[in-house]
Amino acid sequence: MRTHPQPGLRPEGEGENGRTGGAQDRFEAKATCCYCGVGCGIIVQSDGAKVTGVRGDPDHPANFGRLCTKGSTLHLSAEAGLQQQARALFPALRSARNAPLERASWDDTLDLIAKKFADTIRLHGPDSVGFYVSGQLLTEDYYVFNKLAKGLIGTNNIDTNSRLCMSSAVAGYKQTLGADAPPACYEDIDHAELIFIVGSNTAYAHPILYRRIEDARKNNPNLKVVVVDPRRTDTAREADLFLAILPGSDVALFNGMLHICLWEDLIDSAYIEAHTEGFAELKQTVREYTPKYVADICGISEADLIQAARWFGQAKSALSLYCQGLNQSSSGTAKNAALINLHLATHQIGKPGAGPFSLTGQPNAMGGREVGGMANLLSAHRDLANPEHRAEVAALWGVDQVPSTSGKTAVELFDAVRAGDIKILWIACTNPAQSMPDQRLVREALKKAELVIVQEAYQTTATVAYADVLLPATSWSEKEGTVTNSERRITRIQAALPKPGATRHDWEIVCDFARKLEARLGKEHSLFPYRSSEAIWNEHRESTRGRDLDITGLSFAILEQQGPQQWPFPTGASSGKQRLYEDGIFPTASGRARFVNTVYRPVAEPVDARYPFHLNTGRLRDQWHGMSRTGTVAQLFAHAPEPAVVLSSTDMTRRLLKNGDLVHVTSRRGSQILPALSGDDMRAGQAFVAMHWGEEYVSGRGHDGHGSYGVNALTLPVFDPSSKQPELKHAAVKILKAELPWRFLVFGWVDASQVLALQSALRPYLQKFAYASCTLFGRDKVGVLLRAADDYPAAAELTAEIEARFGIVGAGVLRYDDSKRGNARHMRVQDGKLTAVALAGDISAEVWLRQYLEAELPVAELGRMLLMPSSKAPQGFKARGRIICTCLNVADSEISDALGAMQGAPDTLLAGLQGKLKCGTSCGSCVPELRKIIQLRSVAPKLAA
């Protein structure tokens, strides 16, 4: 008897009017990808018990069936073996801080925390508790969390990890346009004459939008692309003009461009006069931003600055796309406002192909903003400081009042916990022990809290280690509700699977807890009567009536029948609004947009003689945030296998560094040892570390013996005064070679049902070495790799324990040991093939031994060579090199070999590679890098000449 499908699921092949055929035991559900803010539609295939596949939804207007490497492998993160190891499936309590989490019932767990909340609120007041939630929650989850904090408890101490990525964009939109509403849409990419990308490696962070940019350039040869970024990323490399500005100089750049537009009469004076205010004051300020002054601040040429300004001012339609490079800054709001000033002055807004378009980083950061899920906001874009807005929300919720004092924002929240002002901290669907800046502060706060509640789908995150209570939530394939993407488009998500174990939906957990708390607080009527996500959404919908994001004309039924819709969609409308402000009327008191008098200020932490490097953080192509999900998929490590700090070749040479050499990367807050890599995308004096690497993947003893915590041991908690968004993108650091001559390396295949369990078991070992990392590799099989270094050989007992975890133990292991030199080579061979290898001291044989293992090549022909002390590779061996195309497992050596037999223009060579190797023909995420390889190949002969 086959499993009955969940609500919203349809057997594969069944149409709207009945079953038309297809497999009887497979079901499909429509949802969105749970990674970035593009909001790609996906079709989730299941057998009723597990996810069996994912493909792009061809009918979804965000992606039209396309998916990137992360989205197309989403189903691999839901494999049964990984889920059993990674998922939090039952409530759990910790009897004491250092005791293990032990399974408990929902009733006992919720009763305990309801009592603790009630007692703490009576004793210390409602502001003694706080909530830290996530842009990966659904809109309905967000709404009830907001209502719980502000409506029932009476505290505004609720903030979100969207504070770390989108709050400067929110503040910038509100200061200039009057509302937190991106005015453009994805279709504007097709109509733009100029695309101005600032602080965004779109090719990596929003790959499906970048595919759309590639299509637009093919369809319109006159389209110009300008990229502004400190690094020559794959996005920047393909631009018509690249402005490699110094970190933090964005305001100067935009003011300088406006200065040139004023000087060359490229502004729209009639539009400014009719639809804006405040221009006279800004005009006085930008007079000082001459091309030479700005070029010197930004570190670019005057000619490039003038070219960018002319293209922007002369274009019939200029579209700006921007992300964390503007937002994650102590002057993030000013950066956003300065760019919007440029759009307003040139009338590049409110028309097809134009507008300032902030790209959200998380799948529902926009939905969280819609329901007021931040410490200073209320539902439907209402302001907490406005008494009328507070009264409207109080009336809707049926409470006497909503507290008027802004709550603690993200960094402030953890500061208050550390100070003891906040006693209870509830964390939902986010991992602050990896993602927050200044990890020492965050971890001290988590240890100081009287009660830490973690509501999470994955029990493997670093934050769970600090949880007194673990509440198991459903994950992407089990959830049901709505999300809103970057272009204000609301998508209805269907559950593909039933809830596993004892998990509950996030909104259910909040409502179940709230009703228990209401009983303890003596409330007669519940504020949380909901029995479905639709009931919550309907209340949220009513809160938007008459507001800028009015969705009173929408319903779950419309979203299911007509597909995703953009807001506003008021009562009586037949469709949502593609782009805003086409009539020149803005949601401000005067109906006019406001110019903000933006003034350039240097970065919060400038470089100096002690800390001479600008550290920049950003995304990898195939990983997502703290990797709690992508980090379970081995093939997603292929493109960037291990943590690293990327430096310019000039800085590598000056410091006598080779690729792979370990360095101390040290800021004023902490230090992390990392391998150094040379990158042609870097300019001298700058360094780059991917934001994803937390202690789950890279660690070590640390200078003080308390451990290091990945990249966010280095970042600073200084934040923008308006948006309260911290400056995660930039820090001043020093980089010194780490004198760690002894190396240790273990890698091997692991049974899929034991992979994450092994990673968790290895985590405590990482801090026993000066440096250690632990990552995955493989494709059809899954392998685990642990790499460590120290200034002296580790104890034999320690390395033996680790090797035993990989099954390198017993009589069947080949062994070579040279205790005098500290060298060792231990290998497990099964059926004539390597299955696990441990190297100590001299690990230079890693390259060929690992390739023999990964390719599952027979090793009998190697004979004694396997155990010879020499690291020389077998005759005829050729390393594959780095994987470029993750989808089809194509390496750079194969690409180079194929190019060697080809001639022609770059587009011809790309087509040839796609035809021969198929790389770039699946998701397309590797196409920019393929173009880079082709470009470097064509440049190399000229350099040699």
Write the layout of secondary structure elements.
Blueprint: E1 10-11, E2 14-15, E3 18-19, E4 27-32, E5 41-46, E6 51-56, H1 69-72, H2 80-86, E7 92-94, E8 101-103, H3 106-124, E9 129-133, H4 139-153, E10 158-160, H5 167-177, H6 188-191, E11 194-198, H7 202-205, H8 207-219, E12 224-228, H9 234-237, E13 241-243, H10 250-263, H11 269-275, E14 276-277, H12 279-286, H13 291-298, H14 302-314, E15 318-322, H15 324-327, H16 332-345, E16 355-358, H17 365-370, E17 377-378, E18 382-383, H18 387-397, H19 410-419, E19 424-428, H20 432-435, H21 439-448, E20 451-456, E21 469-472, E22 481-484, E23 489-493, H22 506-520, H23 533-543, H24 556-562, E24 565-566, E25 593-594, E26 613-618, E27 645-647, H25 649-654, E28 662-666, E29 671-678, E30 686-690, E31 698-699, E32 730-737, E33 742-750, H26 755-766, E34 771-777, E35 782-790, H27 796-805, E36 813-818, E37 823-830, E38 833-840, H28 846-854, E39 883-885, E40 890-891, H29 892-900, H30 906-916, H31 927-944
Question: Termini distance?
Answer: 72 Å
CATH class of the largest domain: Alpha Beta
Strand order across the largest sheet? 8-7-21-20-19-9-10
Q: Please identify, by name, the CATH architecture of the largest domain.
A: 3-Layer(aba) Sandwich
Count structural domains.
Answer: 5
Number of strands: 40
Biggest β-sheet, characterized?
A: 7 strands, mixed
- As a percent range, the share of strand residues is 15-25%
Content-based structural category: alpha/beta
Helix content: 25-40%
Mean pLDDT over all positions: 94
Number of discrete helical segments:
31
Q: Which ranges are low-confidence, i.e. pLDDT below 50, for 5 or more consecutive residues?
A: 1-23
Rg, nearest Å = 28 Å
- The coarse overall form would be globular
CATH topology of the largest domain, anyone? Rossmann fold
InterPro entries: Asp_de-COase-like_dom_sf, BFD-like_2Fe2S-bd_dom, BFD-like_2Fe2S-bd_dom_sf, CT_Nitrate-R-NapA-like, MoPterin_dinucl-bd_dom, Mopterin_OxRdtase, Mopterin_OxRdtase_4Fe-4S_dom, Prok_molybdopt-oxidoreductase
Cofactor: [4Fe-4S] cluster; Mo-bis(molybdopterin guanine dinucleotide)
Domain 4Fe-4S Mo/W bis-MGD-type: 26-82
Keywords: 4Fe-4S, Iron, Iron-sulfur, Metal-binding, Molybdenum, Nitrate assimilation, Oxidoreductase
